Amino acid sequence: MVCSSMFLSSVFIDRLGQKVTMCIAMSMYVIFMAANLYPVWGTMVPAALLCGLAAGPLWASQSSFLSQLSRCYATNTNTKPKDSLSYFFGIFYMCVNASKISGNLLASIVLKQDERSNRSMTREEIEDCVANKQDAVDNATTLERPDDTMIYSICGTWIGLAIVGIIVLVFLTPMTADGDISKGRKRKPIFSKFLAAANHCWNSKLQKLMIPMTLYFGIASGFLTADFTKSIIGCTFGIHTVGDFMLCHGICNTVSASLLGHLVKHFGHLPFFTITFLCYGGVQAILIVWKPGTEHVYIFFIFAGMWGVADAILKTQVLAMYGHLFADNTEAAFGNYFVFEATGFIISFSYSTFVSTDIKLYILLVLLVCSAISYYTVEYIDRKYNTRRDVDNDGTSIS
Domain 81-114+121-144+196-397 belongs to what architecture? Predict the structure, then answer.
């Protein structure tokens, strides 16, 4: 995904347009889902490679399309472009997060039919799991692979829904880079697209200030996927309960994303970013100093919900800020966003099996502090100049 975000996103969007890019990228996701029906090295690795190459163009094209569409909406309704961006990204990620609700509900219902779902862990085994002791995680009976029939049911449903999504995309009205209905595109040389993305990242002071938040979101998402669900939830309560906790995460995520667009219009970005930093920091700090047990199940639902709220705010508002701060160069800006988000994923998964959970939480807290400092700096600059801005070609001034 890092490579595709750096080198393919701008090229695909410029050459094929946002609509075709999304259709092709979604097709690669379908291939990856189908590979899970027969998960061996020969199917998963090539499918994962295709999915990773498609991920950058997919998310960049979606964000670019939404950014342009929101500016059209702002022009026609006489609203502030920044507020319109928050509104559109809020709606989009409400729909994205709604899939977490349906997906985790399906997984929870199907996996609970497994007779092995009633197995439990001792207190000592739970503490070893949460501490990410590899032997404890590998030998945990609560993490055994479900029956193949259940996996086929889940994967088949997801493949069908993805195909429906591609069919819907076929009927999407394409747009040009300036937000008008597409009637043709002026194509730039491929190499110039690479240079534009690299130049934007290198010269833009605001882009550099946005990196800590973007990187943090990737690492935090990796921790949620690889550690919170497996070492903490799955190992403690059983793999069949992961869907329940992530369902709570998805509900809070979806509701928060749907409300943000309206609330930001009245209160601005600042209070919601502050809430995000407090939610992330609170959950991570408590997990460091407190050792859970199966009797504390309700607390983990609270943690999952708080994490969902924080994810919704950070994802939607950071993307909205990218669209606002870099309105004249959205393709390069969103491409850079997904480069650093994917880099965070890579970092998180690269040390996942070698570093204890406590150390991972300390890393997240340190990066969270850096993210907060960088955000408040960007907010100060934005309010000070009170206009759209980007760095000029020599990178020394803000226009």
Answer: Up-down Bundle (1.20)
